[in-house]
Amino acid sequence: MLRDCLQPARCPSCQAFQPAYEAVASYFHAEPKVQPEVWVARVDCAEETQLCNRFGIKKYPTMKYGHASDFEEGSEQGLAEISGKLTAEEVIKWLSKRLHTQYAYGSNKVIPHTVQNSSDASSASSNPDTAHQASATDIESATRLAWKYMMDSGDLLKGLDARQAFMDFVELMSASHPIPSCKEGSRSILQQAPKLWPAEELSGPLPELQQLPICGPGETKEEWDGCKGTKPGRRGYTCGLWLLLHSLAAESLPEETGGTFWMTAVKGFIQHFFQCSACANHFIEMTEQAEAESVRSRRDAVLWMWKAHNQVNGRLEKQEEEGKDGDPAFPKQQWPPSKLCALCHLPNSQDTDLKWNEDEIYRFLLKFYSEASIAKNTTDSFDAQAAVKQLYDIGRKSTQGSHALKIWLILLGLAAAALFACIRTQKAPNRKSRNTL
Ligand SMILES: Cc1cc2nc3c(=O)[nH]c(=O)nc-3n(C[C@H](O)[C@H](O)[C@H](O)COP(=O)(O)OP(=O)(O)OC[C@H]3O[C@@H](n4cnc5c(N)ncnc54)[C@H](O)[C@@H]3O)c2cc1C
What we know:
Order of helices and strands: HHEHEHEHHHHHHHHHHHHHHHE
Oligomer: single chain
Shape: elongated
Strand content: under 5%
Number of strands: 4
Bound molecules: flavin-adenine dinucleotide
């Protein structure tokens, strides 16, 4: 199929582009992989007409670049595009710019920019710089611990305000927790709470409530994945708690107004049950500012929490630089870094003056913290050559039905990807005039 497509008489531009395509694909697929990784695949638009129409391909060859989520959504929105008589150097330079990186590519040889060693590769799914979704293990551990700490709060559980804060937080988890067993556990607790913690009971819940499991059977223990610190006592619970609160925002319901209740419940939980009182005080100060008070929708909540977390990161980054506290292996940073979400950073963004694209941030955070991504908990380490072949094969079948198209896009969604399109003019005579570049 590709050979036909690249025959000079049928598509001279595609033929001319073939060496550049091969060079770019070899550069990104060669082991050890350059970082950030890019997945490269090609499609014959004469065969894959539906697919190419969907991505708005108008010139051949065309290269589209985007984060996995852009391809998953299956429209051309959010994808960057170049076409023309391109050399491999030009393509890689273009990608370097989009990804705010400097791929080291020589005209005669391939020089990996940074090398990922095997131990890094095996932990790619849990490294906060490279993971593409929050870890279910971290969120479940944080939920179990949050429940234990709440139930062990003693005097803090006394009074009407504490009961209301407890009820609100459990209600939020019962609607929006990304892990089904924790959602189910929260629902069950919510149903039994009026009996086990009657409204008039000002001295706290009955012991039976404390025995109920928040995430179903299983131990409450400190088991961390992406939140694992280099020493016990570092990271862990507070890291997992951030992930839990972000994911509750990403799943807040209803979409148009659920942000208001999310804010009330999170504020109540932090105020009453977060043991780090200095942290809680700072956080509550943030929730009392005008921007927090105007949170209405899911989008408002997700973006507000992202900004609040970055504000904390900024404050702690300075403290950590002065040698106070922190885990040196995980320095604080404004998040997400461009290697995790290139499109979240505006093209004129610089390390010293970050400029964000909030639409992209929102899309990225929804993916990162959504129930669907967390449940999948996929790893990024898989065979590049096999994946590209599979993409190509499934891409071929995509014209047979939208289901196949979906699978193809989801597969592409495992990592950032570049999509090359070329055309076999004989099969698509109506497009012949577009083939001259
Ligand atoms: C509500 C709250 C307030 C806190 N306040 C303080 C404080 O005032 N002083 C103090 O010393 N410690 C505070 N902490 C603890 C501190 O923020 C960190 O949790 C701790 O230092 C461990 O840091 P970490 O490296 O694991 O990353 P964390 O900051 O815990 O982040 C966990 C993960 O969240 C993701 N992430 C990072 N930034 C963002 C973002 N902007 N949006 C979405 N996701 C993001 C990343 O994947 C990261 O690995 C607070 C914790 C919480 C939950």
